[in-house]
Design goal:
Helix content: 10-25%
Number of domains: 2
Strand content: 25-35%
Radius of gyration: 21 Å
Number of helices: 4
Largest sheet: 9 strands, antiparallel
Order of helices and strands: EHEHHEHEEEEEEEE
Amino acid sequence: MGKALSLVPVLPPHAVYPNAPTLILDGDMDVIVPLEETTRVATLFPATSFFVVPEAGHGTFLWSNCAANLESQFIENLHVDDTSCLSEPETVWPAVGRFPLVAASARPAEIDPTGDNEIGLAERKVVTVAVAAATDALQRTMIGSGDGVGLRAGTFHADFGETTSITLDSCAFATDVLVSGTLLWGADKSVVGDLTVTGSGTAGGTLQVEGTWQAAGSVGDFKISGTLGGRKVAVLVPEA
């Protein structure tokens, strides 16, 4: 067996940490650096102000206006007086819910009241799992190499830049709906996508996705348009 990796930071022997004002923030949804590790680091500095920001992920200030406010206070005053924004989440993410084996077990997308929707309940469920296949790939490009596999089938590839481009090839979140196409995630957190939907669980067609991903503030909805089975699609799916 190989030697277990140590989680102790690489430091000179008997390191002494400065007794200087230090701000450490962590998000309670950070999937990159565990809260346990951040807490250990915070205990090393004698004059630490340590705050856990609710419903925020890695790069806390990018997720949360609350975190940005705490940083501003610290930079201006070397301490934080007003922590009231930590009392409740700025953003409340919808529950993941089910991981449906087939589209018929999924939650249906909501009808967009501003659009001209023609699809029924069954295809609205198809939209939900189709968008989930795309956002699942988008989420996992952030913690991997950029190449990966769909939850139940298919592959995806990401090209990183000012705009991240994610190409899906027959990705399946539910076994009977396959999704191919491209999703673009901009530096401004905007998301646009053109997806082709096939599989035994759907009449098939194309979907256009518009919205944001990981933008600060309350969770909104992706606006989904296009056609499935020759019928117009105008529905909403949570940006989560």
